Each structure stands twice: as structure tokens, then as C-alpha cells.
Give the backbone structure.
Amino acid sequence: MERQMKSSTRTEKGTTIVDVVGQIDLGSSPALRKTLMESLKGTKSVAINLSAVKYIDSSGIASLLEVLKEARNSEKRLVLFGLTGAVLQVLQLTRLTGVFEIHETEEQALGA
Amino acid sequence: MSFHLKLVVPSDPRFLSIARAAVSEVGAICGLPEETRQGVILAVDEGLANIIRHAYKNRYDHEIELNCQTGPNQIEFTLLDRGEPPDPARICGQPLDEISLSGRGTHLMKAVMDEVYYERLPDGNQCRLIKHLPAAKVRDRPDGPAPG
């Protein structure tokens, strides 16, 4: 399992896609938050690819929530896609599956 | 088979992955189903993160002791620190109805583990996390009992 958290950004069909890899925890969530906040600039839509994230804790969830709030405040769209079982489990335990717009694939995230 | 594992890690978030790996293997040895094992890893990780953030106020130059004690019916994780006492309101957790940014760590610990205890010690804090093992059993040695 990729231990270090890494992220990269690209654009598809006018949406900024942030591909995240690795484990998101107390050590890496600040960097993720910073990247995601930056990704909101200059775009109306951000899709976060979590298909390569095998672990996330509450600090990672908090980072996602912060960015979601910022997106809503600036009337921008933020979606998550490719959630692994571990990520989905944490969202379910924290009762947040209904808070985020979640899709299985990138195609679905871009097409919705 | 019962065993005890002790790990002392710096209060530095970079070392959380080491603790998670150890907890993961303990869970595997105890025969936990994958989803349960992921939950236990998360709960212990949240406990460690809470110590770093709240007991040690994000100072990375302290130590956290993680003990894993397994038995026929349960796994018990004990987290020990020498930091500030926890805020009672944080221990109780936060309501999750709104999109709050804090309190979810404690909620996760209590949602995953069967028993969660906090205790103030003379020189620090102790958090005990217990997971029951209703149907799982500790994995035997792969090569069978030792000869003799």
C-alpha cells in the first residue's frame, strides 16, 4: 500500500480533477486540504479521485468537509468518485455519505 | 493464544502509519474480518491522533505508548501519554447532525470499538479500546505447535 500521500491535478471537460494517492491521516491531511483549496480557484467544478486512497481518518474527512464548505460558499461543485471500501466505511461511520456528491467512476462524476 | 505487543512511538504524525501497520497485523493474527480490522485500525489511529493534537498540543517531541493485549475473547489496546488531560466534552463526542469539523475522531472510536475507557493517571492519560472477538480466533502458528 502506498504510504505517502500524493496528489496531482488535471482538467477534463472543464472540471478540475484531483487524483489522490496513498493514506490520508493527521500528517498528510493539511497538505491535501491546501491542494484541494487551490484546486477550487479558477474553476467551477472539482472532482476528487479517491480510487487510490486506501486509508483516511477523521482529519482527512475534516479536510474534505472544509473544502466542501468553501465550494458551497463560492457556488462551485465538488464531487468525490472512486471511493474504496475503507473510505466509504469512514464516511458511513461519520454519517457523511449524504453530505457529499459521490460517484463510482470518473465518467459518472463528469457526466452528472 | 494470547500475546502482548508494546510499541512506543514519537508523538509525530509521520509515525502513525507504523502504528497502523502493527495494529493491522495484530488484527490479522486474531482473525478479524477485513472490514472489522479496518475499523480497529481507524479507531486506534484516531486515539493516537487525539493524543498528538490534544494531550501534546501538536508537539512532536513526546512519546506515546501503544499496548496490544489479546485474549481468547477480545483485543485490548491501551494508549498511554504524559500530556494534558482530555476535555470531558471531547471525550463524550460531538453530535454529527451538522457538518462539524471536529469531534468525529472520538465518535469513530466509539462507533467501532465495543468498549472505550478514558482514565487520568498520576503522570498522564490512559485510553483503553476493546474489541470483542465473538467468532474469530487467534491464528495458530503456520508450522503447527513447536516440537518437544
In short: The domain at 4-132 of chain B is CATH 3.30.565.10 (Heat Shock Protein 90).
